[in-house]
Amino acid sequence: MKRVQKVLTGMILAGMLAGCGTAGQSATAQDPAVAAPTGTYVGTEENGVMSFKGIRYGTFTPFQAASDVTTTTEDTIEAKTFGDNCIQPYSEVEVASQGPNSHDCLYLNIWTKDTTTTDKPVIVFIHGGSYIWGGTSDPTYDGQFFVRNLPEGEDCVFITMNYRLSFMGGVDMSSLEGYTEEYADAKNLSKLDQTQALKWIQENISAFGGDPDNVTIMGHSAGGGAVEMLVADADCHAYFNRAIINSGSDTREMISDEIAAEQSQEIFEILGVTSVEQLVNLTDEQISEKMEAINEVMHSGLRSADGNVISKTWWEDLVNGAGADIDLMIGSVNGEEDWNAVDWDHSVSEPVDDPNVIRDMLETIETDYAGTYGRLYSLSLDGFYEGFLAMGEDPVKQAMDFYNQVCFVYPSLLLAQAQAEHNPNTYVYYWEYAPAMEDVLEYAGDSAEVSPYGRAMHTMDICYIFGTKDGYTTLTGDPEKMSDDMIAKAQAMVYSFAKTGDPNNDLVSGWEPYNAQTQKQMVISADGSWNCVEGFQSDIMDYFKQLQPYLGE
């Protein structure tokens, strides 16, 4: 599978590149260049890290699966800036939503120290955002810091990708006039985009020094759900052999065909289209104008278990060993969505005083996803919610714990247990570490996103894994106070797992695999210590065993 490619690095004369490939290209004497099968990519170098940004991994056709790019090594392609993120509703929190955005967003980015060193582990990150928001230009996802922080003599090829979001990444077009089977895959274009990116990586990454036989896919939140779907699909395993899921197993549910058809029709009405021709000819501006209204009728990306792109029995497939050849590391944080417990009307640091506020949020989610394959429907079990509340002293905090368990922690452990039955290289972490609430409030003020219980919230682990101190500062606070020790350990965990399939490293050791019997998890405690704990939260896990995924009629 490995391919030896001609590699051009160091001094690239501008005259060698003039008139070649894409018009308007420019290069300096210091620009690194790599000759890969799909192009000679001219990037940049900064403080010992080479970056190649905005690389097209697929040819774009609206509402159809991407095809292979047609450029070759003879084409010189400037790769110095991020490609467009997908069109999405504007959000003050999601930096990627603030542009530039386009329906055509099939780009990836590459960082590495040295393109001449070969056989390096490859790490491919899939961003989150509920399949509605997000993109690789978000400063939190800048891969240069992960690569630069690696110990001397160590290197990897770190990659981030964009993919189609919202209805552009998943929509049922069968009700439109002029529909043909060539649009059947429109239900799951986000997964097909991710697969196309992995295919491009498999065919080109040797030129950047990466080992195509040692690829780890890593995803956060919705990106973690994407990783889970790729692990469940054995046909995709030709492109990767390890997987990391960060707070992502809550996104694994697939909406029913009925829900997909219903929501798609509502979207078409908002867009004012009745035919395939009208839909595919919409401009970026026309789509952007309608995104806020479309977001009101979408629960999440319209991914469907269509029996083609995604198996109708993907959860049973995983339980039966579909991902047996994939090493897995999966984790969650202790205060995942604690912002739901914040009394925003009075203080960003105080909790609400009624546990039913949180229960109502969970009930809305479970109602919106009614009948969705793979979903955990906790409130449908008589006394299940009330019984859990009785286990704690603070009813609001206990309600928030219930919410976090149902939506993140417990589904992650279900997946870990299923995977561990077939592959002993299955590891689980539980992240509790967070900067002091007072420091975050002092730095970010009313914009601060803090748990009223001082816990780590959704994305906290990713901030340390990437080590981009200037990224999500409303969550992490003053960049100058962000712990270098915790960044180093989080990055070593990921790098070691990607390199060897074992997260143990020179900074953190004693991490043992997870299984249903010992339930050993690496607990990253609030005080910054790392300890592998047997039977961690086993009382809670024993209680939640009553809850199983819905598998349809």
Largest sheet: 11 strands, mixed
Give, in spatial order, the strands making up the sheet with the most strands. Answer: 3-4-6-8-7-9-10-11-12-13-14
For the termini, the CA-CA separation is 42 Å
Helix percentage: 25-40%
Structural class: alpha/beta
Note the total helix count. Answer: 17
Give the tally of β-strands: 14
**Spatial extent as radius of gyration:** 23 Å
Q: What is the approximate shape?
A: globular
Strand content of the residues, in percent? 5-15%
- Which regions are unreliable across 5 or more consecutive residues at pLDDT < 50? 1-27
Average pLDDT for all residues: 92
Task: Characterise the protein shown here.
It is a single chain. Helix 14 packs across helix 16. The chain has 17 helices and 14 strands. Helices cover 31% and strands 14% of the residues. It has an eleven-stranded mixed β-sheet, with helices on both faces. A three-stranded mixed β-sheet has the order 1-2-5, with no helix packed on it. The protein is α/β, with parallel strands linked by helices.
Give the topology, please:
Blueprint: H1 14-17, E1 33-36, E2 39-42, E3 44-46, E4 49-56, E5 76-78, E6 107-112, E7 120-126, H2 144-148, E8 157-161, H3 166-169, H4 189-204, E9 210-220, H5 222-232, E10 242-246, H6 257-271, H7 276-280, H8 284-297, H9 314-319, E11 327-333, H10 355-368, H11 384-389, H12 395-420, E12 426-431, H13 437-444, H14 460-466, H15 473-476, H16 484-500, E13 521-524, E14 530-533, H17 538-544
Parallel strand pairs: 2-5, 7-8, 7-9, 9-10, 10-11, 11-12, 12-13
Antiparallel strand pairs: 1-2, 3-4, 4-6, 6-8, 13-14
